[in-house]
Amino acid sequence: MKLDPKDISTIATEIVRQLCQIARQYLEPEQNRQVKPTQMKVGGPPERPPNSLLTGKEAAAILSVSWSTMEGWRVHGKGPEYIKLGRSVRYKVSDLQEYIKTLDSV
């Protein structure tokens, strides 16, 4: 059986369309997930132990900046102190508090 190039193109297009649809089903929920800032109570964020570690997205939410801003600060040696755990970046609550104090004194 010999296939016409148009048939091959049609089949390939349909396969790609179906693969894209499957990929969207798995990727969209993750891509649309937004960082939820910690629930605020009157007077500020909930108390956490000073040495507890936060992700970059959690730290960004507390500082009211985007996660990409936090990345940029790290690259340029600005922003709050951070800790590298393997390939992960974490921020101590106490370091965020100190950073906020330095902003208040400027």
Which blocks of ≥5 consecutive residues have pLDDT under 50? 38-44
First-to-last CA distance:
78 Å
Q: Mean of residue pLDDT?
A: 77
Q: Give the overall silhouette.
A: rod-shaped
Task: Please tell me about this protein's structure.
This protein has 106 residues and is mainly α. The protein folds into 2 domains: 1-33; 53-105. 54% of the residues lie in helices and 10% in strands. It has 4 helices and 3 strands. Strands 1-3-2 form a 3-stranded antiparallel β-sheet. A hairpin with a 2-residue loop joins strand 2 and strand 3. The longest helix has 27 residues, at 5-31. The protein is rod-shaped. The N and C termini lie far apart (78 Å). Residues 38-44 have low confidence and may be disordered.
Summarize the model shown:
This protein is mostly helical.
Q: Any chance you could write out the topology, listing elements then pairs?
A:
Blueprint: H1 5-31, E1 53-55, H2 56-63, H3 67-75, E2 83-85, E3 88-92, H4 93-105
Antiparallel strand pairs: 1-3, 2-3
